From TrEMBL:
Protein name: Carbonate dehydratase
Alphabetized InterPro entries for the sequence: CA_gamma_LbH, Gamma-CA, Hexapep, Trimer_LpxA-like_sf
Superkingdom as given in the UniProt entry: Bacteria
Listed PANTHER family: CARBON DIOXIDE CONCENTRATING MECHANISM PROTEIN CCMM (PTHR43360), CARBOXYSOME ASSEMBLY PROTEIN CCMM (PTHR43360:SF1)
Organism the protein comes from: Herbaspirillum lusitanum
Range of residues in the leader sequence: none
Family label: Belongs to the gamma-class carbonic anhydrase family.
Length: 186
């Protein structure tokens, strides 16, 4: 369901994207080419900053926002998700936040006030809050990363983790095509 926010912004969804009919996109949301947005995802851009404006929540081309993901932003701050990035089931991405291209954010992870570099992997149930994660870094499951974390002690993404991320992205791109073909059936 696409909704206008109280400020009058309405989501912009590229015609090649697939948004499940149970998902809710509200306000200043931009969805690029071939994006998959799964069941019960909520992407809501409706809070204003102190000057009465707001930045967009933007989902880059070929990315996937899976079942039950929540994306929102504090005080109209931007949320930018790069291309070919996967946000897995029930993750929370709360802006201000930037997630680079070719990244993977695992089940139930929480991201807030952070910058996640290209190719990063944040595994399941992890928390990344108030920090910058350079490109190619790996956050293990259940880990909490914050402003006082020694980022340079974090492991780098392995070839196996990169292959997994690429496979998830590829699978969800195929789902976009499949669900777009079925769209008129439901």
């Amino acid at each position: 369901m696409l909704r206008r926010n109280p400020s009058g912004h309405f989501p912009e969804v590229h015609e090649s994207a697939y948004v499940d009919q149970t998902a809710i996109l509200c306000g200043r949301v931009i969805v690029r080419e071939n994006v998959f947005i799964g069941p019960y995802a909520v992407i809501r851009a409706d809070e204003l900053n102190q000057h009465g404006g707001m930045d967009a929540i933007e989902i880059g081309a070929h990315s996937n926002i899976q079942d039950g993901v929540v994306i929102h932003s504090k005080s109209g701050a931007a949320v930018i998700i790069g291309e070919r990035t996967s946000i897995a089931h029930r993750a929370i991405v709360h802006g201000p936040c930037r997630i680079g291209s070719d990244a993977f954010i695992g089940f139930n992870s929480v991201l807030f006030n952070c910058d996640i570099g290209d190719g990063c992997v944040v595994r399941h149930n992890a928390v990344v809050d108030g920090c910058v994660l350079p490109p190619g870094f790996y956050v293990p499951s259940t880990e909490r990363i914050g402003p006082h974390t020694d980022i340079m002690s974090m492991p780098r993404v392995s070839a196996q983790a990169t292959e997994f991320s690429e496979d998830v992205s590829r699978t969800n791109n195929e789902l976009v095509r499949g669900y777009k073909q079925l769209q008129n059936e439901f």
